[in-house]
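Run log // design_07
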């Protein structure tokens, strides 16, 4: 059994981790931390886990050396203070914050507005988009779990980038449920502000933009400017992403589609669907549904749908854990979407 601990078990990502790990056949849940709820039963904070997890939150992991893997679901800026000691204790670490995703201290400071305090491990971290870096993840001590928006956008665009058909700018429009903003209430996610609204935010300045750009440019030198606009919509879970991409006018669309078919065939959790992906098909699951349509001779639209807390966060983290420990990567993640 893999002994797993969770740091930050009261946020939505922390809850989703506990929900998934509680039914994972190869995991023994060790310690779960929460400074705000230390001493409380986990089921007191999340009644959904009643009769499923009979543990209390602890303020910190007392014996990290007893865990094989630690999931760090701490806020941006906090993980880099926690991770070094976990690695020194011999743990393998999967970090769900943005602290290790960009791989460059100067780029991190530009986008997150603070100095990175662990540049040595920043350069060693493996970007945890499983479908892209599976072999590197297998041997990693530290995996930087991708952001929710980059996960949906990249899984929609990677086959197109691999086809070498992109010949210009990439415009990405994502719409997310309010759980992506976290469990702490705020004016931005207050019900009257979002219940009858579609709200663009952080236009051109969102921290997930460099993740998307970095991966696309690693694959294709033909990618032009990348524009990313996230929107908040009045749902709780899910991200629907629409990408508008200029391609070479003489590009072979059937050849591009072959890349999508191969990508889906080689990746358990990527499903190529007819029509436009539907959020109900993926909510509660680790699946990403994708589609590609030709709009004109030189324009295509790529679409994806994911559950932001599962494939866009905790589910992908467990998928990475499975790869790291030599398990079938779908272990504990076979649940289908809710469908309605």
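design_07 sequence
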């Amino acid at each position: 059994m893999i002994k797993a601990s969770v740091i930050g078990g009261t946020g939505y990502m922390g809850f989703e981790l506990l929900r998934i790990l509680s039914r994972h056949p190869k995991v023994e849940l060790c310690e779960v931390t929460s400074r705000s709820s230390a001493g409380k039963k986990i089921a007191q904070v999340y009644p959904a886990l009643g009769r499923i997890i009979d543990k209390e939150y602890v303020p910190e992991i007392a014996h990290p050396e007893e865990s094989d893997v630690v999931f760090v679901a701490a806020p941006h800026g906090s993980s880099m203070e926690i991770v070094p000691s976990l690695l020194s204790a011999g743990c393998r670490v999967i970090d769900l914050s943005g602290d290790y995703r960009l791989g460059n201290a100067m780029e991190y400071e530009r986008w997150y507005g603070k100095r990175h305090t662990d540049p040595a491990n920043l350069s060693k971290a493996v970007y945890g988009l499983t479908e892209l870096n599976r072999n590197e993840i297998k041997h990693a001590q530290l995996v930087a779990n991708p952001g929710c928006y980059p996960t949906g956008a990249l899984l929609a665009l990677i086959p197109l980038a691999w086809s070498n058909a992109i010949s210009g700018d990439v415009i990405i429009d994502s719409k997310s449920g309010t759980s992506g903003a976290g469990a702490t209430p705020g004016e931005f996610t207050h019900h009257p502000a979002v219940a009858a609204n579609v709200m663009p935010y952080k236009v051109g300045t969102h921290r997930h933009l460099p993740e998307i750009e970095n991966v696309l440019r690693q694959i294709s030198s033909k990618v032009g400017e990348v524009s990313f606009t996230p929107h908040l919509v009045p749902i709780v879970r899910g991200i629907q992403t629409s990408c508008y991409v200029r391609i070479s006018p003489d590009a072979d669309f059937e050849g591009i589609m072959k890349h999508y078919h191969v990508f889906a065939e080689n990746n358990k959790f990527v499903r190529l669907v007819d029509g436009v992906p539907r959020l109900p098909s993926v909510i509660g699951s680790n699946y990403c549904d994708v589609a590609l349509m030709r709009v004109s001779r030189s324009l295509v639209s790529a679409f994806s749908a994911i559950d932001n807390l599962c494939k866009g966060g905790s589910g992908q983290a467990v998928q990475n854990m499975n790869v790291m420990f030599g398990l079938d990567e779908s272990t504990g993640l076979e649940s289908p979407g809710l469908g309605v």
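The chain has eleven helices and 13 strands.
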